[in-house]
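Summary of Year 1 activities. Much of the first year was spent building the evaluation harness for sequence design. The harness presents a backbone, in tokenized form, and records the residue chosen at every position. We chose the following record to illustrate the format because it has been used consistently in internal testing since the harness was completed.
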């Protein structure tokens, strides 16, 4: 998280939500959460815990039954600001194939800004900026179906960025990708966050939470665990209760540390653990 003045990007106050009006159970239950400007928040939780619903409540696609959702101070219930809120919160979903609306990459990225009436001159600039941000500028005139899954998701992120959002939500955006594609997308997301963008990722891949500033675990529509990755992953029993596991690299590093192997402390990515092990063997 880069240095910035503390400011609330997203604030949910006692939010409850259920689908339909009948006897259905609440999917989000009296949930309160605030995300600072520039923060990287990772939302974990097993299937059906309410993660996607939470994302849709944040960008005003769904409105709370009770409680308030504010994005940079604008309430999603306020009809005058719902359009503003949608512009401020960019979302990228799971399936890269469902998200491409045009055949050629640049037309796809231009789709959002065109729809909100951005001038054609500015659209050109936004395509430049957005494709550069995700490292896809060389693919500007390429047909979407020629891209790998990871590249398609980077184009989907570019499409969201072309609307100049303040907050980017990646809702299981790496779930359908191979490990390489997942890494590409996470690297782009982390770079954007380093540059100051507020980032919310929703995932069931534990290792994607390692770099977050804060992790929250959702269970049956409630936040049941919250803390830095280090705090959250040091309580594997808690995670197991909610159908989650610690990242494999964290698990291995902990086991090694407990048996006396001098591995650096903190939560390690797989790459960092690899480097630590190499150093140990080289120093033998
Ligand atoms: P997650 O993203 O954690 O998998 P969701 O927010 O998609 O969870 O779903 C939470 C709960 O809400 C689930 O029980 C799911 O079946 C239900 N649900 C999700 N979308 C709808 C919908 N459009 N209509 C009715 N129920 C839904």
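For this record, the design step produced the sequence shown next.
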């Amino acid at each position: 998280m880069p240095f910035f003045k503390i400011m609330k990007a997203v604030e949910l106050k006692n939010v409850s939500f259920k689908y339909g009006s009948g006897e259905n159970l609440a999917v989000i239950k009296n949930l309160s959460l605030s995300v600072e400007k520039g923060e990287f928040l990772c939302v974990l939780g097993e299937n059906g815990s309410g993660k996607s619903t939470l994302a849709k409540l944040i960008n005003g696609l769904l409105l709370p039954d009770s409680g308030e959702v504010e994005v940079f101070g604008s309430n999603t219930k306020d009809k005058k600001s719902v359009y503003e809120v949608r512009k401020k919160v960019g979302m990228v979903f799971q399936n890269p194939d469902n998200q491409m609306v045009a055949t050629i990459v640049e037309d796809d990225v231009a789709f959002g800004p065109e729809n909100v009436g951005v001038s054609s001159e500015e659209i050109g600039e936004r395509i430049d900026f957005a494709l550069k941000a995700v490292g896809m500028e060389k693919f500007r005139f390429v047909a979407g179906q020629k891209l790998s899954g990871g590249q398609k998701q980077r184009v989907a992120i570019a499409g969201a960025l072309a609307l100049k959002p303040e907050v980017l939500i990646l809702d299981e955006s790496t779930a359908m990708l191979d490990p390489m594609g997942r890494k590409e997308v996470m690297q782009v997301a982390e770079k954007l966050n380093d540059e100051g963008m507020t980032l919310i990722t929703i995932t069931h891949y534990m290792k994607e939470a390692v770099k977050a500033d804060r992790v929250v675990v959702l269970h049956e529509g409630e936040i049941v665990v919250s803390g830095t990755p280090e705090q959250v992953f040091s309580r594997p029993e808690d995670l197991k209760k909610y159908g989650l596991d610690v990242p494999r690299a964290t698990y291995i590093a902990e086991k090694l540390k407990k048996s006396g192997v001098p591995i650096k402390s903190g939560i390690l990515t797989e790459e960092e653990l690899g480097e630590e092990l190499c150093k140990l063997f080289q120093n033998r």
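Residues 19, 27, 45, 47-53 surround adenosine-5'-diphosphate (CB under 6 Å). Quantitative recovery figures across the full test set are reported in Table 2.
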